[in-house]
């Protein structure tokens, strides 16, 4: 079992490449998520069991895609998107910090956006970024996103909704 519909999606580029996750990635994703939880809405520690439950749910959804970012045959991070009327980019993590600031995650994001626009013609692409995450806001901005609106609702932390300009 690999991903929704049993189809493995591979996006190749000279530097970064992307492939959809499979069950062998579950523990790696859990570790990356737990080490970066302060950057995300969900900030509770993810247990083995919780992660397996998430993966089973993910596997049965056909509108949710999580990719491993590969660089020189090494898994260095992840990113995903889900269809929620528009496209919500999520789960963006540079897992192996040794590969930070090299433009690999940017290249992977551009590759994923190109794929999204090929699959869902002219659909809006957005990402919700916590207001405290200034690095990610700058990173999305450098990658063609602009701030669309600020949301501050109840117990949920304030975030900025960023939208992509569609030209890749
Ligand atoms: C956001 C995140 C994925 C960015 O990862 P990164 O490795 O810094 O990403 P990139 O290398 O693509 O970022 C571009 C940086 O590389 C530099 N760079 C070097 N070569 C580059 C190239 N060929 N192309 C683009 N940028 C290049 C840029 O100058 C930029 O540097 P700067 O941050 O000093 O401005 C990473 O910081 C992360 O995992 N953060 C924690 C999780 C998180 O916040 N996720 C988002 C939640 S909404």
- The level 1 CATH classification of the domain at 10-123 is Alpha Beta
Query: Which residues sit in consecutive blocks of at least 5 with pLDDT less than 50?
Result: none
| Biggest pleated-sheet summary | 8 strands, mixed
Stated plainly, the CATH topology of the domain at 10-123 is called Aminopeptidase
Q: Report the helical percentage.
A: 25-40%
SSE order, one letter for each helix or strand: EEHHEEEHEHEE
The CATH superfamily title of the domain at 10-123: Gcn5-related N-acetyltransferase (GNAT)
Mean residue pLDDT: 91
Describe the protein's topology.
Elements: E1 10-11, E2 16-20, H1 26-35, H2 48-59, E3 64-71, E4 74-84, E5 86-94, H3 104-119, E6 125-130, H4 134-142, E7 145-151, E8 159-164
Parallel strand pairs: 5-6
Antiparallel strand pairs: 1-2, 2-3, 3-4, 4-5, 6-8, 7-8
Q: How would you describe this protein?
A:
With 168 residues, this protein is of the alpha+beta class. It has a domain at 10-123: Gcn5-related N-acetyltransferase (GNAT) (Aminopeptidase). 28% of the residues lie in helices and 32% in strands. The protein has helices spanning 26-35, 48-59, 104-119, 134-142, and strands at 10-11, 16-20, 64-71, 74-84, 86-94, 125-130, 145-151, 159-164. Strands 1-2-3-4-5-6-8-7 form an 8-stranded mixed β-sheet, sandwiched between helices. The chain is globular, with a radius of gyration of 15 Å. It starts with 9 loop residues before the first strand and ends with a strand. Bound molecules: coenzyme A (COA). Coenzyme A binds at residues 36, 39, 92-94, 100-106, 127, 129, 133, 135-136, 139.
């Amino acid at each position: 079992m690999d991903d929704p519909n049993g189809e493995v999606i591979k996006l190749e580029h000279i530097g970064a490449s992307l492939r959809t996750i499979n069950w062998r990635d579950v523990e790696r994703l859990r570790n990356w998520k737990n080490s970066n939880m302060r950057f995300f809405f969900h900030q509770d520690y993810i247990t083995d069991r919780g992660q397996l439950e998430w993966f089973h749910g993910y596997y049965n959804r056909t509108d949710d895609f999580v990719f491993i970012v590969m660089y020189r045959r090494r898994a260095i991070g992840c990113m995903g998107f889900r269809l929620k009327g528009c496209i919500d980019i999520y789960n963006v993590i540079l897992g192996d910090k040794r590969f930070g600031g090299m433009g690999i995650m940017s290249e992977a994001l551009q590759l994923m956006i190109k794929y999204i626009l090929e699959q869902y013609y002219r659909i809006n692409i957005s990402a919700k970024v916590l207001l405290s995450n200034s690095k990610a806001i700058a990173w999305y901005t450098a990658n063609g996103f602009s701030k669309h609106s600020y949301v501050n609702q109840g117990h949920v932390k304030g975030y900025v909704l960023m939208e992509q300009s569609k030209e890749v």
